[in-house]
Amino acid sequence: MRSRMWSLQRNLFVALLVMMTLLPLVVYLYSREQGRAEAAQRLWVYVERSVSRALDIRGALEPVIEKAGPRSDAVQAAMERSVGGDPPIAYLQLAGLSRQVLNSTSGAPQRDQVPAETRPAAADELVQALRRGGSHAAPEYTIGLRLGKQERGHLLVGLSANAFEEQLRQFHEPLGWSSVQITIICVAILAVFSAYIVFLHERARALAAHLQEESRLAYVGTLAASIAHEVRNPLSSVKMNVQMMEKRLGDLDPAQADYFRSKVERIKGEVERLEDSVSHFLAFSRPTALRLELVKLSDVADNVLELLQPQCQAKGIQLVRRYARDLPPVELDPRQIIQAIQNLVLNAAQALGKGGTITVSTAPTADGVALSVADSGPGIPKEIQPHIFEVFFTTREGGTGLGLNIVTRIVEEHHGKLTLESEPGKGATFRIELPRTAPKPGAVTAQ
């Protein structure tokens, strides 16, 4: 079912991308055809105006032709005066009923007969004629006129090719720009839309992975809690018996006492390690509601260092306190923050091994306080830094991989932030930032 849904989502995603990719082309073709239609309309208006002007010229020529004859210089002079104007006419030719040329203006083509009677071209025909012939073939048409009282003839009107080209240029320039602009806008929309789809897709995958991880962690937490409960009681019994054995070592001779004392110390160390693992599993599996109190973070940190001082001294590790003066109190759960700081200090001690320095410092921030735990150890390699807060990730043999995850959860429950700064060979610094107040549903405020 899940694979089918993923396949459907993928197909829809591809279909949307294809559709959005073709949209700029469709818009461009539509705008181009729309532009051609408007250009044809402009040209037809131009032709209509030229026809109206040609009729006026005919009305002015007929009396001159009737008086002086179609081949006379007077008729040619009258025709020459009519060339140009607005809309511009390129040339005029006068022909008889048999289409034989009787008179022409200076710009007319040299020919004996005019073409068969032609009507004013339609707008699309004019555009096609201009595209075929360019400026060398001017569109032309004929209208009838009287050469005398009884004789009929033709007046051929040649339109200016340059005028046609100007009409097309005036429209095609903005058409070209609008097509480019529309294409750019559509491509930009496509890019934004594609990026948004990718964002939604990645977010859906992240949410699915998060839900799967939450489900897995819930199962692991339940299993860990049951195992921890089963292990804790036998551990307590082992610890009590080891303590009783340690008290009886004085009854043995010194050689045997030293031998068994080393064994007892090793057993105690393993029992303490197991107890620490059990505590981590229980803390991981049973997140509790915050019990908020208004306290100073420096006081909480100092309690942790007092508790861990003997353990660090035994390893030759120096604990350094650098607390800010007049640090404002903040709302936090002392019990959980103690656990978070303790995990960070113990992690630093394990990274140091024997000797070194752990510095715990506090400082005010813009909206709360911050606590840093820095060690002088080897640092954390860059390649594993993104993974150290993941559940069960550990580089220490026998580690649970829960310590930093528990710290992260505690800090997030306080609406705070946990960050890491580390360079190989220069130690590591974990920084907890807490807000001045940490309201949370289900939190209990201590009275």
How does this structure look, described?
The chain is of the alpha+beta class and 447 residues long. The protein folds into 2 domains: 2-177, Beta-Lactamase (2-Layer Sandwich); 290-445, Heat Shock Protein 90 (2-Layer Sandwich). The chain has 8 helices and 12 strands. The protein has helices at 2-68, 73-82, 123-133, 161-247, 254-285, 297-314, 334-352, 403-413, and strands spanning 89-96, 101-104, 140-146, 152-159, 291-295, 318-322, 330-332, 357-364, 368-375, 417-422, 428-435, 444-445. A 5-stranded mixed sheet has the order 6-8-9-11-10, with helices on one face. A 4-stranded antiparallel sheet has the order 2-1-4-3. A 3-stranded mixed sheet has the order 7-5-12. Strand 8 (357-364) and strand 9 (368-375) form a beta hairpin. Helix 6 runs parallel beside helix 7 (334-352) and helix 7 packs antiparallel against helix 8. The two termini are 53 Å apart.
